[in-house]
Input
Amino acid sequence: MRSAKLGTEERRAALAALAATELDVLVIGGGVVGAGTALDAVTRGLSVGMVEARDWASGTSSRSSKLIHGGLRYLEMLDFALVREALKERGLLIERLAPHLVRPVPFLYPLTGRAWERVYAGSGVALYDAMSYSSGHGRGLPPHRHLTRRHALRIAPSLKKDALVGAIQYYDAQVDDARFVTTLVRSAASFGALVANRARVVGFLREGERVTGAVVRDEESGEQFEVKAAQVVNATGVWTDETQAMVGERGKFHVTASKGVHLVVPKDRIQSASGIILRTEKSVLFVIPWGRHWIIGTTDTAWNLDKAHPAASATDIDYVLSHVNRVLRTELTREDVEGVYAGLRPLLSGESDETSKLSREHIVAHAAPGLVVVAGGKYTTYRVMAADAVDAALHGLDRRGPASCTETVPLLGADGFPALWNSRARIAAASGLHVARIEHLLGRYGSLAEEVIALVEKDRALGQPLDGADDYLRAEIVYAASHEGAIHLDDVLARRTRISFETFDRGVSSARPAAELMAATLGWDDGRREREIAHYTAQIAAERESQLQPDDQSADAARMGVPDFS
Output
């Protein structure tokens, strides 16, 4: 599979081809489900286009808990089918589809009761492991184990002694969610899908009652054009209802948004060799290792305000801090928080008003002739959702097509990854980069790291760390703009890298050096460069202000003080 480059020229060519081609399938939405749908459809031999109104993964798919997991709490809800399905997908991703992006991570579950809790929780985790193994793709993770309090405290010295009487340790997996979606998009493009971000659907084409395509606006140039397609797939997540409304008909189901807030703190604030999972009165709270940081979350509250930029309030932040501090010997404060991000879960509406009780199952339906809607689900099961959506599209095409083959199609960067990882010392010696840098690149790009290293070989200055964000090389900024479809500064600092929540200044000190690298790559003039820097700085200021507000309404108003770049 050839590597697909997503630069400005490639985007321009894709837009032109979309306007000139009648597609089998047009996918609306560039999150994990939309990207997965495009990959599934194109690998079945269909002609495919995909458009995204903003940036790849700019919504829910870049603001998750970064976990690939079966969902232990769904076992307690007796949703065995969902857990079994998710555990199979977890195994596929680790073992075959994306071993460079999805990796195992251990979690401690502190026990606070005596024998009854160990039996109850232990039975659940044992069933979790058994379901994983029965899927045929669970052998890559160690089994759970029971720990005494002394053993658990050796693993996690930051836990209070009186916060547990023992613990259970089990394994799940984690992923850089935004990077995974970018890789999905490039994988789809490598098979021939026409993909374009910053391309917003503003209406649908109709022939009688049948949907025959969409009207798309290039958000960079303002130009509008028509894209004809035999089937259109609405994979817009929390925007499902709004997209459906453009058809002029009521949808068969509705999607409710639930806000999840995460905090990021430096690694040295919590001494632990394992992630931690805690039970709260409403759900669960994760403490997740993330490089030189911890991600702590999440909340679960209804959100009915701006969906593009969900805001975390002071109440949300205090909620997360208060719950994690119940078990920590040294409490975390606001001053320990490097970053904050909020995402929205797309939940299928049910009879309960409590978002934590709404369904995580997905639904695929023909909302109108020619229009397939896929909604709900969870990040881990994106591939199953995508396959179901394409099955529905094929049914709408009134023709039989090949079955989904994405279970056996590794993503870009997976090919040869184990061999390259084993050769990392040799690659470091040949490239002149430290082996730690090579490990970092392999963990983000897999075998595509060779393309990033090639940039360094052409310009040694790109082998230096980015000012203000030592974890990332300057070459990664250039690569994001030249190969990964980054158009704006925020695309790079918030999604191609995660600098916007991994540094105390939220990436402000990195804004100018990153913008200068992007300017040289994308041909920005001085005015465009300065506007990008000013917009990013103002956006961060608005986010910080929103996080001081006491409630959702005032937080949303503060964040909306800075609109999207125009």
Summary: Residues 351-359 have pLDDT under 50 and may be disordered. The CA atoms of residues 49 and 488 lie 22 Å apart.
